[in-house]
Amino acid sequence: xxxxxxxxxxxxxxxxxxxxxxxxxxxxxxxxxxxxxxxxxxxxxxxxxxxxxxxxxxxxxxxxxxxxxxxxxxxxxxxxxxxxxxxxxxxxxxxxxxx
Length: 99
Fold this sequence. Notes:
The longest helix has 12 residues, at 87-98. The mean pLDDT is 94. By secondary structure, this protein is an alpha+beta fold. The protein is built from four helices and four strands.
């Protein structure tokens, strides 16, 4: 669904608390067309308030929509390791924000 994000002029990036080598492996494994970035020291995850919420020492699955000005417009924080919003759910929030 990546092209649908591009049609809305939305940039995507995934941020992982894995090291760079593992982040690159994830790009290869998933075929992601967007950047998967390493946040090995979890500085970004901690800044967004999503680090270790499940007591597992990693970032909790989350999605954040950030405006061009840098404001957080919407945030989804998973309740489990497999709780993630669908692309359709994220696109619905993007559409709500750009109307």
